[in-house]
């Protein structure tokens, strides 16, 4: 009668004889019952992309498309983010306002100014209602409104919104902030539209001084302001000649 050891050797020889093409390791892998992988742990909120995370992701994608001047895609992603945020977390007013501004900017870029104005107003109303108030966000919304009003030809509303934004930026932002520089340029454009050439030049010169602190001289913003200042100077010269 075979011992267990001898029987084991015989079975091993038989198995190897019928699987001559296999290496020892491969045979062992086949003979040994591999343990089943552990079941994944139950999903937790930390491992799941929440609806709020998805809304934030859509907002970021929209911003990328806007920077690439893909305004239709920016509008679509901001709209999806807004709808998702309003449905799952209507109390997240900051995110809702951010997407409203994004939609307004996309419409403005597509020259759909009436739609842009509507969304920009909604964003401002929400941002002014948040407690504690985020003045920087309110100022940016006012700046957006000023740009839209300017393009609509409503210089009075444009100046009012722009000056409110400028007052906020002066209080809370560094003196050389890009937001202030951009707003000063836009205020210059509003004043120029109103025929106030001297004040327009002052705003343009303030703007270019800030941009020269934070941007290289070859930057398009500086080139644009140089053109604005040169244009205003020519207008002043013509007034003197007349």
Description:
With 242 residues, the chain is an all-alpha fold. Among the domains are: 51-130, Tetratricopeptide repeat domain (Serine Threonine Protein Phosphatase 5, Tetratricopeptide repeat), CATH 1.25.40; 133-218, Alpha Horseshoe (Serine Threonine Protein Phosphatase 5, Tetratricopeptide repeat), CATH 1.25.40.10. The protein has 11 helices and no strands. The model is unreliable at 22-48 (pLDDT under 50).
Topology as a string of helices (H) and strands (E):
HHHHHHHHHHH
- Class of the domain at 133-218 in CATH? Mainly Alpha
Largest sheet: none
Estimate the global geometry from the Cα principal axes.
elongated
Number of distinct beta strands: 0
CATH fold group of the domain at 133-218: Serine Threonine Protein Phosphatase 5, Tetratricopeptide repeat
Kindly state the percentage of residues in helix.
over 70%
The CATH homologous superfamily of the domain at 133-218: Tetratricopeptide repeat domain
Structural class: mainly alpha
Low-pLDDT residue spans: 22-48
- How much of the sequence is in beta strands? under 5%
Mean pLDDT: 84
Q: What radius of gyration results from the CA coordinates?
A: 33 Å
Which architecture name of the domain at 133-218 does CATH use? Alpha Horseshoe
Number of helices: 11
Terminal-residue CA separation:
129 Å
InterPro entries: TPR-like_helical_dom_sf, TPR_rpt
Keywords: Repeat, TPR repeat
Protein name: Tetratricopeptide repeat protein
TPR repeats: 181-214
């Amino acid at each position: 009668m075979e011992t267990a050891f001898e029987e084991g050797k015989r079975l091993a020889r038989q198995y190897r004889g019928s699987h001559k093409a296999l290496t020892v390791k491969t045979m062992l892998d086949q003979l040994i019952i591999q343990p089943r992988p552990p079941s994944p742990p139950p999903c937790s909120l930390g491992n799941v992309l929440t609806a709020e995370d998805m809304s934030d992701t859509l907002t970021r994608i929209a911003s990328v498309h806007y920077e690439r001047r893909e305004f239709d895609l920016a509008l679509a992603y901001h709209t999806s983010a807004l709808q998702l945020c309003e449905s799952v977390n209507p109390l997240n007013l900051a995110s809702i306002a951010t997407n409203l501004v994004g939609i307004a900017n996309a419409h403005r870029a597509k020259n759909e100014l009436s739609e842009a104005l509507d969304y920009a107003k909604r964003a401002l109303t929400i941002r002014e209602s948040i407690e504690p108030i985020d003045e920087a966000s309110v100022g940016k919304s006012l700046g957006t409104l000023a740009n839209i009003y300017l393009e609509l030809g409503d210089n009075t509303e444009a100046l009012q919104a722009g000056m409110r934004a400028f007052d906020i930026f002066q209080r809370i932002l560094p003196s050389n902030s890009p937001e202030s520089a951009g707003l000063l340029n836009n205020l210059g454009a509003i004043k120029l539209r109103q025929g106030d050439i001297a004040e327009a030049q002052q705003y343009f010169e303030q703007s270019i001084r800030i941009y020269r602190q934070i941007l290289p001289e070859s930057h398009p913003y500086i080139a644009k302001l140089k053109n604005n200042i040169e244009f205003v100077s020519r207008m002043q010269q013509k007034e003197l000649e007349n």
